[in-house]
Design a protein that fits this description.
By secondary structure, the chain is mainly alpha-helical. Helix content is 65%, strand content 10%. The strands form two sheets. The protein has a two-stranded antiparallel ribbon with strand order 1-2. It has a two-stranded antiparallel sheet with strand order 3-4. The N terminus is likely disordered.
């Protein structure tokens, strides 16, 4: 066995383990999240405000499992291959926005559930502050619209870029050298650049 094969073996093993974990998460996430959403939709008695919000979490998890994890598994075993849709900038942008928008939506929903539980405990005599089904149904589209609105700018910087004859979908951040901070040592040599343009973008 050559040295190159010896060096590649641990990498292949690590990728295989990560892929198995991804597949395991998909096998658990897809059916259970789908089942929870269907149950809440079909059983009227289960449509409590908390369950409606949790179904929003399940929807976000389902989208990540269906649209993100297959890409990750493909990239694990084809690190030098082209982006799966090498001629579609729209798919590149969609693939960039969906994961972060889903995570942001999950964070918003968890925060809302926590605030609702806090209100129930701290202000039990103020029922008008509690989460209701109507508020939960209004919150779900609002959370998704806000999530995609916040990260729509991320789609605007996602580009198809060719590196070594391979097409990649990567973020290309706008640069503004006038705002960057250059850190120098005592002798005046540049040791670090703090890109304020990138920080401001985020």
């Amino acid at each position: 066995m050559t040295d190159s094969h010896t060096e590649e073996a641990p990498v292949v093993a690590a990728r295989t383990i990560i892929a198995i974990l991804y597949i395991g998460m998909m096998a658990i996430s897809i059916p259970f999240n789908f089942l929870f959403i269907v149950t809440v939709m079909m059983k009227k008695s289960y449509r409590t405000p908390t369950n409606v919000l949790v179904s929003n979490l399940a929807l976000a998890g389902l989208i990540v499992a269906v649209f993100l994890m297959p890409f990750k598994i493909y990239e694990l075993f084809h690190p030098k291959s082209d982006f799966p849709f090498p001629y579609s900038i729209d798919m590149c942008r969609l693939r960039s926005v969906i994961p972060v928008a889903c995570i942001f939506c999950i964070a918003l929903t968890l925060m809302t559930i926590c605030i609702d539980r806090c209100i129930v405990i701290v202000y039990p005599m103020k029922p008008y502050l509690k989460m209701t089904n109507k508020k939960a149904y209004l919150f779900i589209p609002f959370s998704w619209l806000l999530s995609f609105a916040v990260y729509s700018q991320y789609a605007s910087i996602s580009v198809l870029y060719t590196i070594n004859n391979t097409i990649h979908c990567i973020p290309f951040y706008p640069e503004n050298n006038a705002t960057d901070i250059i850190v120098r040592n005592a002798t005046g040599n540049r040791i670090r650049i703090i890109e304020l343009s990138r920080i401001a973008f985020w």
